Amino acid sequence: MRHETAAENLANAHLPGFRRRVLTQSQFETSMADAQDKSGMSPFLGTTIGSYSEDAVKLDFTHGTIKQTGRKLDFAINGDGFFVVDGPVGPLYTRNGAFLENENRELITVDQLPVRGLNGTITLPPDTPMSAVTVDSEGRFFDANGVEFGQLETVQFGDNSVLHPVGASLFQAPDNITPDASTGVVLQEYVEQGNVAYMDELVNIMVASRQYEAAQRVLTSIDEAIEKHINN
């Protein structure tokens, strides 16, 4: 799982708004103590010590580097916050502001999901060229004549750990969690890069591979020692 987690981080390093996955670990002694029953005996039968599950993979919400692109429909949030999009079963949240427009000039994500504005879906005016669209620090859209026609909805959470991933750069919050308005600043013609450090992930892959090989050698040695003891 350590190897797979690092590989996933590397594969999505170029994806705007991606949040690296981190595998949480515990000491063997801690796992052993948790596995003991009330009598103090270790219930080895039917118990796996030190196993991992998907719940052990956490998200690192450290901000990535903000990069200028010059593209009118690229946006980044400088500070805390998420863009809101309409998912199949409710709102989803993302730091990936590389948006597009569909055939109806509605603002959508690369996953074809509508980007949510404060008053509904944001639709670009048919008579306004993309080069003339401007967006201020509050996420308000203006046409060539300076007329406002929409505003991005941006929110933030007191604790980002309540979010769980839906795909690579989309996140979902529990139904009982209500976000607050974002205090971050919206930047047009910028995107936030993934918060992945290539060298760190390469080192993680190498360390995981070596530890796996070392564990295999230890198990082989134990197996040989037991076999020798039995034969004697």
What do these coordinates show?
The chain is an alpha+beta fold and 232 residues long. It has 2 domains: 2-60 and 196-231, no CATH class; 66-192, no CATH class. Helices cover 22% and strands 26% of the residues. The protein has 3 helices and 20 strands. β13 (140-142) and β14 form a beta hairpin. α1 packs antiparallel against α3 (198-231). It is elongated.
Helix/strand layout:
Blueprint lengths: L1 H10 L9 E3 L4 H8 L21 E3 L6 E3 L5 E5 L3 E6 L2 E5 L2 E2 L1 E2 L5 E2 L7 E2 L2 E2 L12 E2 L4 E3 L5 E4 L2 E3 L7 E2 L4 E3 L7 E2 L3 E4 L1 E3 L5 H34 L1
Antiparallel strand pairs: 1-2, 3-20, 4-7, 4-19, 5-6, 5-15, 6-17, 8-9, 10-11, 12-13, 13-14, 15-18, 16-17
Helix pairs in contact: 1-3
Low-pLDDT runs: none
Give the overall pLDDT as a whole number.
Answer: 87
Query: How many domains would you count in the coordinates?
Result: 2
Number of strands: 20
Helix content: 10-25%
How far is the N terminus from the C terminus?
Answer: 39 Å
- Rg from C-alpha positions? 24 Å
State the secondary-structure class: alpha+beta
What is the makeup of the main sheet?
6 strands, antiparallel
Order of helices and strands: HEHEEEEEEEEEEEEEEEEEEEH
What fraction strand? Answer: 25-35%
- Strands across the major sheet, in which order? 16-17-6-5-15-18
Shape designation = elongated
Total count of helical runs of at least 4 residues:
3
